[in-house]
Every structure is written in C-alpha cells, then in structure tokens.
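Async update (no meeting this week)

Hi team, since we skipped the sync, here's where things stand on the single-chain job. The sequence we agreed to prioritize is pasted below, unchanged from the tracker. I ran it this morning and attached the output directly underneath so nobody has to dig for it. Comments welcome in thread, and please keep replies under the output.
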Amino acid sequence: MPLLYANTLCSKSAQAPTEGSLLQAAPRSLPVPWDPAPGAHYNSSFLGSSRRQKAGSSCLGWKLVPATEEGQGPFPRATQPQRRGLPLASTRPAPASSRGSPGPAPPLAAARGGLQLPKRPAAALGHMVLGVRARYRRGLPGGSAMGQRVPGVPWAVAFLALLALRGAAAAAPNFVLVLADDLGFGDLGSYGHPSSATPHLDWMASRGLRFTDFYSSSSVCSPSRAALLTGRFQMRSGVYPGVFSPGSRGGLPLSEVTIAEVLKAAGYATAMVGKWHLGLGMNASFLPIHQGFDHFLGVPYSHDQGPCQNLTCFPPDIKCFGTCDQGVVPVPLLWNQSIVQQPVSFPDLVPLYNKFSRNFIADCARQGIPFLLYYASHQSSLPFLQHTHYPQFASQEYTGQSQRGPFGDALAEFDGSVGQLLQALKDNGLANTTLVFFTSDNGPSTLRMARGGSSGLLKCGKGTTYEGGMREPAVAYWPGRITPGVTHELASTLDVLPTLTALAGAALPKVALDGYDLSPVLFGSGKSPRQTMFFFPPSPDPLHGPFAVRFGKYKAHYFTQGSLHSDTTPDEACHGLTPLTPHLPPLLFDLESDPAENYDLLQSGVGPELLQVLKEIQLHKVLFEQRMEFGESQIRKGRDPALQPCCVPNCTPKPSCCHCS
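Output:
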C-alpha cells in the first residue's frame, strides 16, 4: 500500500500510522525555511508546515486518512507483492508491524535532521529485545504501555544483550556508495582531464585506492544499476534489453536480494538518494523501499524521461537544453512512495539531496547505528536524443563556474556533493569507520561532444562493449584502513555486494553471484580474485552470449556493434549505424600496452603464445555461458501509460495535468 505524507499540526493524541491507513498529500505549498533557492516552493506534503511542532506532541507532522478507495494515491493500486526475503532466517528483522515501528519518517523530519532510524539488531535475540524495547518505550500496539513490564522477558538478559548489540554495531563499518551517471574514464582530474573541477574526488583518489581497471556490468543505466545492487549480471534478474521507462510494467524483481537487504538484515540503517531507474510497477512495488532501503529521496528513472521544455535547468532561468521525452508525465521527485513535486525543480534538487544525506549520517551517528548510504547522482547526465539522460542541471552556486561549460558545472556540483558527504563523516566522527566507494554506472555519451563526457584514451563510450563504454573511474577511500595508491587489479561493480557483505560480517545471499570479495585488493594483502570480465551489449541474448571477454591483460571481441550514444567520435566503429559484426577469430587486444583497442594482435598471425591465450579465453567463455541463466525479461513486459506516476491521479488531460509544485 503506498503511503502518502501530508503535514498537519500534531496534537498530543495523534497516533503514528498503522497498517490500513493512507497518508494523503495536502493541497497547498509552503516556502522552505532552509530554501536553497530564494523563492522556490515545494509541495507541503513533502516539507510540511513552517510552524514548529509543539513540545510533547507524539507525531511528526502526519495526517491520517483512511484508505478506503481503490486506486487512491499517485500510483495504481494492486495486491502488494510478497516482500523478498533473505535466506537468513536467524538474522532477518521482524516485520515492522511486529516491531511496533511507526513507519518511515516524513520528509520534513528527514530534511531537518529528524529521521526515524530503525533499530535493527544483528540476531534473532536482538530482534526480540529491541522490538520489545521499542514497544515498551513507545507504548504502541503490540507492546506494553510506558512503565509497565512485558511478561516473559528477563530484563537483566535483555539489558546485557542490548549492550552486546551496541558494541557489535559500533564495530561495524559504515558504507557510502557514490554512483555517478554517464561519467567517463577520462572525466576526472585524477584520471587525466586537464580542466575538470573535481577537487574532492581527486582528493579522495590521492588519499584512497584508485582503480585503473574497474568495470561496470553494462554500458547503459538500468542493467548496470541492477548488477551493482545484486552482485549478479543483469541477465539473471531480467533487467534487459535496454532500460526501464516511466510506464514499464516490470522492474528489479523482488526475488532479487540487494546489498541494502543484506546489510539491513545485519542491523544497518539504509537510505538512497538520487536516480533509481529500476522500475516502479503496479502500486510502486519496485521502488527502493521495497528493495531494502529504509528511506528514498530521488527520481524513479532518468530525468530526461519526461518533457523538459520550459523547465529551468540553470538559474536564474536558463531553460533545459535539448528535447526530452514527450507524451509522458513530468519527472517527479519522490520521498519513499510519495510524489512530493512534479515536475522536479532541477536547480534545487542537489542541495536537497545533500541536506538529506548529511542529516541521515548525523542521525545514524547519534543513534550509534551502522549505515549504508547509496548516493546515485544523475546531474552529470547528458543532453540531446531520447534515452541519453539529458538535460544537465546545476544550482546557483555552480552555474557558470566551470571551464567545461554546462557539463562541467553539473560535474562540479556532483564533486561538491562528494565533498559534503566527506565533511559530514568527519563532523560526526565517522571518517575512520566508513568506507566511501565511488564509481560510475557506464561510459559517457560521446555524441554530445563538449556537452558530453570523456572516455579519455579509451575507445568509444556508452552503449558499446569497447573499453570506453564499460571501464569506469573508481576510488575506494577509508582513512586508516586503505593505504593510498593505485591498483591495476581487475574489479567490477559486481564485486560491491560481496565486498561490503564480507566487511560487515553479514551472510551472502543463497543465489548464484557473479562478484568477488575485493578485500585482498582494498587492504593490500593480495591479488584480485577476479581474473575475467564479460562484456554484454545493452540487448543481450543467449545466442550471442558475451560480445567480449577480458582475461588478465587480454581482451577478445567476438562481436562488435556501434551505438547512437557514441556517435560523433572520429572512430566509425563507435557510431550508431555500425551494424553487429561477428569476428572469427576474435579481435584480440593487449590492454596493458593498447588500452585504446587499436591494434589487433592477430592481424600479424597467431603464434603459440597467443594461441594459448585464445584457448584459455574460449574455455572461460564456454564455462561462463554454461552457468549463465537468463531470467524473464522485465523490460519486455511492456509499458502501461496508467503506471506513470501522477500526483493528481484523477486529473485530466493526462499526462500534462500531473503538476504539483
């Protein structure tokens, strides 16, 4: 059931939301007390009343409205799919109803530092103890009122268990996972760009571990994000071909286990800000709060997947460049499942993300709860054709400040966001207990030239299986734990889930994983367990299998194909009109001496050494194809315009009437 937040003055008798109730949006707008842009207004359902809540009030600005009408709310109603479960029965948290949880905090509390973070223990005993403690203290249904004993609980044992759990939580590391959007291998100063203003990311790279051979699982958005969160190639979860649209019926299946769910079961608080792009579905059932995240503030898909004409991308009133998708609803800003603004105000978006992130970190620090923060930026996206993640945008502070024009301004603001995250960790005493990991979802859309990103010396960009499409910048930063330096070891976004799981002392999901624990690389004690990388196109199929395979320093291309995303480059192999081309024998490149993939080693014949390399690559390819199982395609389930999110569900004419700002 979708929960919609509205502000109202709270009385002392107000109750927290309960199952079977629906929170609806108030129909008015109010200025934000900490408004990042003078004159900007937001829907009051998101930011709430400007009046302070009275002391002793027992709610946080919520108004309860019985949910009795079918289809009520901004998303079409349906039977809620069964929540996925980790195969960790002994460590899975009890349902919210059994813990007496009041549900997610409203955005007003989140924006002002009042997040209601769940107290998740790491063991079944902890679930019982903390669940009872929560009911005991709050006097909610399912527990005793304040001051009364709960029968059957030995309080001395409970107290000792709480102390043990707090000690375990204090030892658990925190994780900040930062994902850029369409950022190329050559876009950062630390990766060689001469004019990029990225001081914070470059500072991280100089004091952390910088990867030179780090790969995304895909060269486009949705599949790469699915693999990052699950540790599995996107074909297994059915996130192919291409990307999700606003009205997609499918999404990341709830049967998939995300890193958020793994860590949540181990006692972590979890939050996501930014671009989701893994589906909404009926009843918004695929959104992050159904995939292990306690909180979500962001957009459900790419911010070009909605009309952007007449919208302001750069202050004071510079309109968005290019032509965004037409015939669909304006892109909304969501809090959990609530539409809080539609269309989203681009210049105000990043300051809002940063404010939420800082408060989430501070609240976790105050409560002593380990956390995962997934910051998925979408401000370095590119403009021009449909489905290329335009338009770029930036706030007042960064507009016109970069030598690289609009792209540089957006990139500089993203870098500034990273700086704020690092500062928040330092201010809250968490810098030495937090792993910050940065990378990008896929390569740059080079068709936009100066308005696009740079793959540096690598070949092609987004949409291709050449190096420029899938080799990404990546930095791991953990003061006192990770020795500063550069690694040439092979690694991938697929390795994030196994690595964080190991560092948290959690249990891996009982499914086939395609990632490895990178701890030996991060802490300098050994080589990467990853020796191969498989390159799939945006539209993979079992017949063709991986288009390319990397084994050690060698990469073999069995198929190549251009992409519209990589047009305008001098190399015709990158262009969208370049058809699918098989190669037998495959093209073979030595990426240590030829990272640009210019010189096929087999052009001058096949010697004994190269013949052995080809045999080993072919063996790895065959074994991998035997293990790979293609799940049902979620994207081929099609689209339904009725599934597009609208803040005024019954308005006409759609989609143009969906405006709430």
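Quick observations from my side:
Residues 201 and 415 are 6 Å apart (CA to CA).
The longest strand covers residues 581-590.
Reply here if anything looks off.
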